[in-house]
Amino acid sequence: MASKSPIRVAVTGAAGNIGYAAIFRLASGAVFGPDQPVALNLIEVGPGLNALAGVVMELQDCAFPLLTDVVATGDLNEGFKDADWCLLIGAVPRKDGMERKDLLGINGKIFIGQGEAIARNAKKSVKVLVVGNPCNTNALIALRSAGNLPAENFFAMTRLDENRAKSQLAAKAGAHNSVVKNVAIWGNHSSTQYPDFTNALIGGKPATQVITDHAWLKETFVPDVQKRGAAVIKARGASSAASAANAALDTLRSLHFPTPAGDWHSVAVLSKGDYGISPGIMFGYPLRTKADGSWEIVQGLPIDAFSKEKIAITEKELLEERATASEALGLKL
After folding, report:
1. Residue 189 annotated to the active site
2. Which of the pair, 331 or 80, is modelled with greater confidence?
């Protein structure tokens, strides 16, 4: 066993499809590195506890060299105890006939409780990534419920949208997705998010030079990325699980390790007004992680008229979500 102290990761919804797809890669060393021990706090609600017991058996049966210990619990205080990272996956999915306000009200209560429990039990340096939808506003609710924990340590996942965008740009350009860089996802992890092709690079060249069909970029690429989640549901009869788990782990890795020079990664953070966005909403930005583990929003990117229009739409939705959640929960968010 390596001599480093383990990184303790708390995972809610741990026996669900996304949790199941994420946990084994966390335990294997695929996220924090081949010499970094990991401890897992796995959290489920009552009906999921039997399944969680089976997941723990499977973790034992993998005999991961880096996995130091596993806590499996339905108790938030125990689940978040001493956590370095909280991966908040568990949330009530939107059902037929359910209004967005209903969903925000139900999930809002969940994330109030989780934010309070994180503040009581996790390390003061804990970082929190929200995956459960609507993840931007759920992250805001958790942040506002977490007392004096640093706002800069709360994130909502937009990496799935970034990965989708990179893949589609690569396919159109006849290139491998590894050569697509600098893709920003602005705004909400929803059908209003804006996958910014105007600042993207393919093989070191502007994407708009490599892909000369600009009508495709505006009229096909953008809506296809925005609606990709719905396309997956239509095709497989269930929402994205493996790709969502992969994106969550990509996000953890990108926030843990310094960002390679000249690139960035996308994640939603609390807006302080950068790029003219209203403060106080969890907004997707391009970020760079520094060597000390802190991060900064990439500044000075040119935003053309098309991009401004798309960014304004997703900002409006997030402001409406915040107002709806505030009303549903009786809170000032």
Report:
1. yes
2. 80
